Amino acid sequence: MHGRRTEVDEPFVTPEGFHIMWPADCTSGSSDVPQKEIRNCRCTLLSRVKGFEGDTVTSSPDMGDMTFEEWQNAKTTRNQEFTFNQNDGIIRGNVSDQNTGRMVSYNPSYDYTIAVEKYSDEVSRALSMEAAWLAEQGTKDKVEWLSLVDTQTGEVLYREKGEDLQTGANFWDYILSHSEKKIAFLHNHVFDGAISAPDMEIMLTSDSVDCVVAIRNDAVICVAPRNDRPTPNKMLFMLYGDKTEAELVALAIRDYTRGYYEHDGRR
Ligand SMILES: [Zn+2]
User: Which residue in 28, 63, 75, 249 is deepest, having the highest Cβ count within 10 Å?
Assistant: First the structure.
């Protein structure tokens, strides 16, 4: 959607052909817009007056003269410099090779165990089996698969294959129509990235999602089980302001999880 323009009272048309009046618009006669067109939206809306185009603002004031690509690269670089620490309440594994952009692969001899204290052994076993399945399937297809697992029974409720290395978003329809369930959201990472801001936002924008798990295909597993605080129902930048992605993730982990951990199953 970058750089799209429209008249004040006319909608923007998304790449999939839905009409929205502003970024993440889910009102104003666009109730048929699917969740995947709205969730994780990072767009900014700028006004322009006809006849005053000249060399006026071309981007958010925070970006200065940066192009969108420069801004994106700066974000990525800063993310890598940020280190989590114990004071954030984060239990960090000794995983040194994170967020370098390297592709990682499933290995059947690796350990895909997930053990979450608040779940029964049966549920933890189910989560572990699903983690291995996601890593294997995700390696084969070179995409992110996701699964929703019932945290009371361990039942796999839903699976979805992503597109173009993006996690799918049709699962929101399942979650929104099964609000009685408590769900663990599992997905694989094709590259060596840790849990991301959009990953955490899945938990922070739904009462039903009780745990978010990011499984690197090579068995480095990030687990974030939620604590008892009510769901803020907000995107991270709305909660914490303009920070790097890694800082936003660390703050969300500190405030909304009961201890995040990373498991390195390659040993
Ligand atoms: Zn992820």
Answer: 249
